[in-house]
Amino acid sequence: FTVTNETWETAKIQKKISLTFWIVYLAKESGKKYSQDNYIIIDYFLDQPTINVKQIFKKDWENIQDYIKKGWADKLSCSMGTYIEPKTKGANNQDLTNAPNGNGGIIKVRRRAFYYKKNYTNSEIVPNIDLNPIKDKIPYNK
């Protein structure tokens, strides 16, 4: 219900993604995983999306909001969106929340949260990562 009562300008997600602090770390090397306290920080930076990127975020969010308003919250899928997607969250399939049914009533659906899609990270974030500290450890650079 929160998303249905928001506008893009007041949406919680819009405020969260207007400035993101990214930390890039090495979590495994040569197939061996590091424990979390031994991750190696490679790079970090602030991401402030361009106007064009913000328009894509807005379009994705409005499409997701429209699904919810129509009573289709149970049909939300991570295949939706160009840069942001609705993914299920919670411990299991029993973690439900109320959503509009499209006719003024309420239905129970799995909880969802917004996530960046790989399309966004691959096109807008990865190109900004300085991989120089680990270039010799990247298999495709050899």
Quickly describe the structure.
By secondary structure, the protein is α+β, with helices and mostly antiparallel strands.
Overall spatial form = globular
Which structural class should the secondary elements be placed in?
alpha+beta
User: Residue share in helices?
Assistant: 10-25%
| Overall mean confidence score, pLDDT | 89
Tell me the number of helical segments per DSSP (H or I, 4 or more residues long).
3
One letter per element, helices H and strands E, the order comes to HEEEEHEEEEH
What value does the Rg take, in angstroms? 19 Å
Largest sheet: 2 strands, antiparallel
How much of the residues is beta strand, in percent? 25-35%
Strand order of the biggest β-sheet = 1-4
- Kindly state the number of beta strands: 8
Report how far the terminal alpha carbons are from each other. 51 Å
Task: List the uncertain runs.
Answer: none
Keywords:
two-stranded antiparallel sheet, globular, 142 residues, alpha+beta
Protein model, in words:
The chain is α+β, with helices and mostly antiparallel strands. It has helices at residues 12-17, 51-69, 118-125; strands at residues 20-26, 28-29, 32-33, 40-47, 84-88, 96-100, 106-110, 112-116. A two-stranded antiparallel ribbon has the order 1-4. The protein is globular.
